Structures are given as structure tokens and as C-alpha cells.
């Protein structure tokens, strides 16, 4: 399971929002994901998240950028992301900042983002400015560094892995 990740020419173009979210959640998860290990497909929590996404804000259209899929963008270039989590996370904001960066690189003047948490009926605004741009670029560089590493990063403390679809890989016998 120690296959090399994408080649240097492909790396920045291949980073999507999931890569950034996983970087901030668990670098080991990012490293495994980048090598094709995808237990999310068997996860009930991921399936639940897909149902929440599919049944919330049904009049919107996904924006497929190739490497990333944004839930939707409103007039004025505000990025919207829907999460099934009951707890806002810095990883979610980092994912939205990455989407803002990708849109800006395509020549779009982005205003910011909003993360929707329909299960708790809450939204969180994500600012887009020079500091946010620098954070997004730093996250991108960190993700590329993790992906390029020859070995997996250390696992997190087991308590932080609750609900993770990679739990068996990291903590199984």
C-alpha cells in the first residue's frame, strides 16, 4: 500500500476539496485517500451525508471544476457547501477557502463562502480576503507535502477517530 501519489505535474491540479478537508481532519486520512484507499464508500455516515446533500437545497446545481465539486455558487460568487455534521469544523472552512481559491484562479472574483449545517439549522460564513487566500495556499502546499511523503503520517489519538471510515485501517488488528 505504499504506491507513489500523483506525479509533480499533476499534483496541484488534482487537489479537490476532499483533499483539503482530510488534511485538516487527519493527514493520514489524506495520505491514504490520495493512494486510492476509499473506505468511505462503505460508510453509513458518508451515505447519510450524501442523503442530506441530495435532499437539502434541491434547487441548486453542483459546480464541477474537475478536481473539485462545489455544492453551489450564488450570484456575487459566494461559495456554498452543505455538511451533515452537527458540529462546525475548521476543516469545513478550509474546504470552502480552497474552493474560493480554485474559482479565483479561474478569473472569478469571489466574495466568500457559506457552510450550511441543515441538521442544526445553522450557517457559518467563511471570509475570503488576502489572509484567507494565504491560508488556502498554505493548506494546498501542506496537502501536497503529505501526499508526496513516502510513508503514512502517524495516526491520531484513537478518541479523535470516532466515526471515521478509515478507523479499521488505522486501528484494526
UniProtKB/TrEMBL annotation:
Q: Does the keyword Nuclease apply?
A: yes
Q: Which UniProt keywords apply?
A: Exonuclease, Hydrolase, Nuclease
Query: A Pfam family in this protein?
Result: Cas_Cas4
Membrane-crossing residue ranges in chain numbering: none
InterPro entries this protein is in?
A: Dna2/Cas4_DUF83, PDDEXK-like_dom_sf
Q: Where is the DUF83 domain?
A: 17-171
Molecular function per GO: exonuclease activity
Q: Give the domain of life.
A: Bacteria
What name has this protein been given in UniProt? Answer: CRISPR-associated exonuclease Cas4
Say which species the protein is native to: Streptomyces aidingensis
What is the organism lineage in this UniProt record?
Answer: Bacteria, Bacillati, Actinomycetota, Actinomycetes, Kitasatosporales
Amino acid at each position: 500500500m505504499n504506491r507513489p501519489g500523483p506525479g509533480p505535474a499533476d499534483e496541484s491540479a488534482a487537489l479537490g476539496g476532499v483533499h483539503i478537508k482530510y488534511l485538516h481532519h487527519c493527514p493520514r486520512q489524506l495520505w491514504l485517500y490520495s493512494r486510492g484507499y476509499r473506505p468511505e464508500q462503505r460508510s453509513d455516515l458518508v451515505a447519510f451525508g450524501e442523503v442530506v446533500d441530495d435532499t437539502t437545497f434541491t434547487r441548486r446545481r453542483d459546480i464541477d471544476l474537475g478536481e473539485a465539486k462545489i455544492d453551489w455558487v450564488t450570484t456575487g460568487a459566494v461559495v456554498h457547501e452543505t455538511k451533515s455534521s452537527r458540529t462546525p469544523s475548521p476543516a469545513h472552512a478550509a474546504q470552502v477557502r480552497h474552493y474560493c481559491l480554485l474559482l479565483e484562479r479561474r478569473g472569478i472574483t469571489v466574495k466568500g463562502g457559506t457552510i450550511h449545517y441543515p441538521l442544526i439549522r445553522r450557517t457559518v460564513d467563511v471570509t475570503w480576503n488576502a489572509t484567507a487566500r494565504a491560508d488556502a495556499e498554505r493548506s494546498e502546499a501542506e496537502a501536497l507535502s503529505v501526499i508526496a511523503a513516502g510513508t503514512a503520517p502517524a495516526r491520531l489519538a484513537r478518541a479523535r477517530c470516532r466515526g471515521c471510515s478509515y478507523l479499521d485501517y488505522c486501528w484494526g488488528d
